[in-house]
Amino acid sequence: MKKISSLKVPLLLLLSFVISNFSFAQQARNYQVHDRGMLHETEFNTGEIGRAWETGPQGETTDVPLFEWPANSNLIINNTKYSGQENILGAGIYIAANPQGKPGFSNRLFAMCGAVGADQPEVAFGQWSFPISITKINNFPVLPNGKLNPSYNPDEAEQIITAKWASSVGITVTRTSRQWSYPDYDDMIIYEYTFVYDGDTTGIVGTPGRTVTLNDVMIAFQYGFAPSMYGYQREYGNWKYNGGIYRGDQNNFWDARYWLTYNMNLRTNGDATLPFKPESDPVLFLHNAQTGENGGGLNSPQAPGYCILQYDTTHLAYVDPTDSVHNESEATSELKSYLGSYYELDANHHILQPWSNKVSTGNTNSAKEQLNVMNPSLRWSGVYSPGSSTWPNPPQAPAGYTWIGRAAYPYRQSADAGQKHTVFGPYTMHLGDTLKFAVAEVVGYGAQPGDSVEGGQTTKEWSTNPSFNIPITINGQKLTNDYLKDFGYPDYVNSDVRNVTQVADKAFTAYLGHEPTVPVWPENNPRTGNYKIPIPFPAPVLVLTNTDKADIRINWTRDVENFTAPRLMGQLAKFNIYRSNSAMGPWSLVASINKGDLNYINSSGEYEYIDSTTTFKVGDSRYYSVTSVDEHGDMSGKTNIISIKKDLGAVDKLGKVYVVPNPFIVNSGFSGIPNAPQVIGFYGLPKQCTIRIFSYNGHLVQTIQHNAPVYSSTEWYQITSNNQSIASGVYFFVVTTPDGTQSTGKFIVIK
After folding, report:
1. Fewest beta carbons less than 10 Å away: which of 143, 263, 378, 481?
2. Is 666 helix (H, G, I), strand (E, B) or coil?
C-alpha cells in the first residue's frame, strides 16, 4: 500500500465482495482505494481524496494512489525508487454557511473537508469533519473462484465506495464514488455527493446539533493538480511546490463545453519546445519510447482534471437586492453594482452558476480559502460580462443559457496552477433539506488536440490544446520529428478514448446513460446517475503455477462463456494472453485462444495454456493477464493481473529428495538457494509436505512446513527450533506427505 504523508492512517482490511461498514461514534479516520480501472484513487471518510493537502517535500513519496494514472506505475530506474504517476497534491470539499440572523464573515461557519493547507496539511479530522462510516462494494461480474457472480448488477459500477462524515457546519456529507474496468470507461471515477442538513456537528449519535436555518450555504470542490510526480522527480528530483511544481511548467485549462478543468505540462524547465517532460536521458528516452517501458518516452503526458456532471438547483437562495423581505442572501451587496449593467439572475432570482471557477496557487491555508473561496460577498473568480473579450460569442444552449453572468475563468492565473476549485451557491437550507451534486475525476493522454479552450496562456484568453505530434530534441540530439507517429500511444491507453476531453464525454455518457448534448448544462441533468453503459465480456480469474519443466501454466474456468448482461457489446470470440515485466506494462501478446478450442481445454474442463518461453529464467518474475475479446474486437479490462516467479513446479508424487549443497561447507560461500548465502535447500518436493531434520543422535532439530506448488523448499539457515545455530556433523531428514508417503536422506554440515 502507499504511504500517507504526515498523517498515519489505519488501513481497513478489505475482503472482495464483503462490505465493510463501520458506524462507531467518533469513528477513526480511514480510507478505501479504488483499484478496478486504470485510474487508482484513495477515498477517506473525512472528505479528503488522495490524501490531506500537501505541497512540501515531506509529500514526495506515497504508498497509496494519489489520482494515479496509469495504475501500478511505481518503478525503479538506476537504483532510484519512484512512487509512480501520481497526479494530485490532495483534494476535498469545503462547506460554508451563516446561521439565520447572524450575517457577516465573523459569524460564518466553515468545514474544510480536505484540500486545505500549504507545505503541510491542515487536519480536517476532528475539527471540520467527523467520520461516520466507509464502505466498499466490489460488484464484479466474476467471483474470485472464477464463477459468475449471481449478485452482479449490470446497471451499477463494478466498484463502489461510500464515505460518510458529519461536518462542523451541521451538514452531513455522503460521497459515493463509482469505477469501471471497461476500456472506454476506465479512466474516470464518478462521485455523487449528498449534503443533508441534519444538524449533526460531531458525528456522535445523541449529541445536540444545529437547528436554525442556514443562509448563504456554499459548496466547493477543490483539487490540487501536478502531473506527474514521476515526471517532476525524474527531471528535478522533487515534486514539492516551491522549487518543484512551481517552475512555470504546467498550466490549467477550462473547457466550458464539458464544465471540464484539467492540467498539462507544457514545458520542461520553462522550455516550451519540451512539453510533457520527455525523458532527459536520450538513450533511455529512445528505449522507453520504442518499447513502451516505464510508460513511454514522455514522463508527464497526463491531463488530470474533473468535470461537473450535475449541481443542485432545488435550494438556491432567492436573491433580490430590492426586496429586503424575501431576499435570502448577503450576495446582494455585490450584485448591486452589477444589476445596473446586466442581469445575472435567472427567472427564479437565483444566481447563475457556478458561483466561482478559480485557479490559483497551491497555498490553500484555511484563512485564505475562507475569506476568498467561501465568501458570499466576494465572487473571487469574477463574472463573464456583456462584451467580454473572453466570451464574444458564448456557447448557446436550450432555454437561452449562456456563460454571461456565470463565474469567469481567470486565465491570467492558469500558469503554475496548483489548485482549482468550483463553487456553487448561495443556497438556503432548512433543517432536513438535501443538496445533490455529481463530479467526475477524469484523466487522459493530453487533451483533444486543436481544441480552443481557456487557459494555457497568461496574456490572452484562449489557447489551443497541443498535440503529441511533436519533434523531440534532447541535449542537441534530434530524436524524433513526430513523437506520436514514430512511437504511438503507450498501451495503458487501451481504447480509442485517449485524451481527457474524450474521457469527460464518456463520463457524461456513463452518468446520463446516453451520449451528452454538447455543450452540456449540468443544471439540466438528473440528480442521480443512470449508469446503463455498454458492457464487455469480463476477464476470467487466473491460476498460475510452475511446471516441473519450469514453464508457466495458466488456467481459467469456462464460466465466463456463460456471461450474459443487458447492453452486452458482442459475443465472446477468444481470449488474449499477455505477459509483462511490470504490472503497468507494456504487455506482449503471448497467444490468442478461440472460445471452446479443445486443444486448450484440459481434463478438468478448464482452459490451460503452457508458456514455455525462454525469455526469462528461473528466479525471475513476470506479470500475466488474460482478456476476453468479443466478435467485434471489444476487449475486457486487464482485471486479473497476477505475478509469478519462474521455478520448477512441485512433483506430483513424492520420490527422491535432494539436499543442495551436500556437504554444506560454510566457508565455501556456496548456497542451495540463488542469491542467498548460508542457506540449505531441499529439492524434489510435492506441493504439500513436512520436512523434519534430525541430528545424528536422533534429536529433532527443525520442522519445515512446505505448502507451495514449487519443486524447492523454503530456505533453511541451519537454525534449530530453539533458534540456535546447528553444529558440524551428519544430519538426517524425513519428508512426509499428508497421505503418509515418506522419503529420507542425510546431509553433512562442515563449519
Report:
1. 481
2. helix
Is residue 183 within 8 Å of 635, Cβ to Cβ? Answer: yes
Number of Cβ atoms within 10 Å of the Cβ of 396: 11
Longest dimension (CA), the chain: 105
Which homologous superfamily does the CATH classification assign to the domain defined by 543-645? Immunoglobulins (2.60.40.10)
Q: Which CATH architecture has domain 658-750?
A: Sandwich (2.60)
Q: What is the DSSP string of 211-234?
A: -SPEEEEEEEEEEEE-S-HHHHHH
The pLDDT, as a whole number, for residue 677 is 53
Identify whether 354 is preceded by a cis peptide bond (ω within 30 of 0).
yes
Give the Cα separation of 379 and 124 in Å (integer): 25
Question: Residues 578, 584, 49, CA angle at the centre, nearest 5°?
Answer: 135
Residue 251 and residue 414 in contact, taking contact as beta carbons nearer than 8 Å: yes
What was the pLDDT predicted at 675? 44
Q: How many whole angstroms separate alpha carbon 581 and alpha carbon 586?
A: 8
Global pTM reads 0.87
Contacts of 681 (CB under 8 A, 6+ apart): 659, 660, 671, 672, 673, 712, 713, 715, 716
pLDDT score at 19: 38
d(CA 696, CA 709): 31
Distance CA 518, CA 513 (A): 15
Domain ranges in the chain are: 1-468+494-533, 543-645, 658-750
CB 700 within 8 A of CB 692: yes
3 state DSSP class of 350: coil
Topology agreement, domain 543-645 and domain 658-750: yes
Please state, as a whole number, how many other Cβ atoms lie within 10 Å of the Cβ of residue 604: 8
Binned average pLDDT, 10 residues per bin, the chain of 751 residues: 36 34 63 98 98 92 97 93 96 97 94 94 96 98 97 98 98 98 98 98 89 97 96 93 86 95 94 95 96 96 98 95 87 62 76 93 94 89 74 53 85 88 97 98 97 85 92 94 97 97 98 95 96 97 90 96 97 98 96 98 97 86 97 97 88 87 72 55 89 93 89 81 88 95 93 82
